[in-house]
Write a structure and sequence with these properties.
The N and C termini lie far apart (76 Å). By secondary structure, the chain is mainly alpha-helical. The protein has a domain of 41 residues. It contains 2 helices and no strands.
Length: 59
């Protein structure tokens, strides 16, 4: 009896979930892609700067 109650409760909770639309998923995907690209570019510039500083010091 406990398992059937658990399954019934799970179905009830799942019915309350609001799933994102296709457009919302696409918008979030693009936003994440932009943020990751900006952070990657920033880190690449920091790495380039730091490596040139270290090369100037050692070189």
């Amino acid at each position: 009896m406990e398992l059937s109650k658990h399954i019934r409760n799970a179905k009830t909770e799942l019915a309350k979930v609001i799933f994102p639309t296709k457009g919302q998923v696409k918008q979030a995907y693009i936003a994440v892609l932009i943020v990751v690209s900006v952070i990657a570019a920033f880190l690449a510039l920091v790495d380039l700067f730091m490596s040139s500083v270290v090369s100037a010091i050692l070189g």
